[in-house]
Design goal:
It is built from 9 helices and 13 strands. It is an alpha+beta fold.
């Protein structure tokens, strides 16, 4: 059995670079991607409420002006109290999310303690910076990271730019092609100390408005039973909102929008 000294570090990414650099080809050695078709993820967002955070994303990925995938996963749990939502080039986005999961788990196993939310946010900045070569070729990865800070007893949201800059938002944020439209709704509807139901309703409305204005963002599809993915992050952990609950939120929203003005 390998001990920590055999690795020399608890940074899983550095171990891969030394021992199996070929596995990080898409991060460290970008090839010419000109003319290659790829899927693009679109709108994701996070909102702080009284017990934690809602982090969510639509399910559509585009390929140029066509729908490439209708059921893509854009929200990934990282550990018990954190999750990441991804927007940008779908392949590198998913790879980064999964590598981030492994890195956090590896750190906990080698160090014997959980990596703090601040530490996770800093490491994600390093991963985003590692993707700079691909970002310069148009394969941008823009994650939105959120978690419940057990020490501070409240939810926190971190956003990133394409070169790895890390910034914290206090109440809400949205990124992706429909991010501006979603943020407009969040700005109008957000209130401090939201209840869980109100926070979910605002998230549903923000994604609805993003899909209404942005052709790349997918709205609720009642025929195919495809709905945006929403996760709660609280002191108890990360939990996914069932599709039936999300569908009910959109029925409430549609009923309200259909009322005469």
């Amino acid at each position: 059995m390998l001990e920590l000294g055999d690795y020399g570090t608890s940074d899983f990414l550095q171990i891969l670079r030394r021992r199996h650099p070929e596995l990080l080809a898409t991060l460290d050695a970008p090839a010419n991607t000109a003319g290659i078709h790829h899927y693009e993820g679109t709108t994701v967002l996070a909102v702080v409420y009284d017990e934690g955070i809602v982090i969510a994303g639509d399910r559509q990925a585009t390929e140029g002006y066509q729908v490439g995938e209708r059921r893509i996963q854009k929200v990934y749990q990282i550990d018990r109290h954190s999750a990441i939502a991804i927007a940008g080039a779908a392949g590198p986005c998913i790879e980064m999310a999964k590598l981030f999961q492994v890195e956090v788990e590896f750190y906990e196993k080698t160090e014997g303690v959980s990596l703090s939310l601040e530490g996770q946010a800093n490491f994600l900045a390093h991963l985003v910076r590692s993707n700079l070569g691909l970002a310069l070729q148009g394969l941008i990865v823009l994650p939105l990271f959120a978690g419940y800070d057990v020490k501070r007893q409240h939810g926190r949201i971190f956003k990133y730019d394409a070169i790895g800059g890390r910034y914290e938002e206090d109440d809400y944020y949205a990124i992706g092609s429909g991010g501006k439209d979603a943020r407009a709704t969040l700005k109008k509807r957000y209130r401090p100390k939201l209840s869980q139901h109100d926070a979910l309703g605002i998230v549903a409305e923000a994604l609805w408005d993003a899909a209404d204005e942005d052709i790349a963002t997918g709205g609720p599809d009642f025929i195919r039973k495809i709905f945006p993915m929403m996760n709660l992050i609280t002191e108890a952990g990360v939990s996914e909102i069932p599709d039936d609950t999300v569908a009910a939120l959109y029925r409430e929203l549609i009923a309200r929008l259909e009322q005469p003005r």
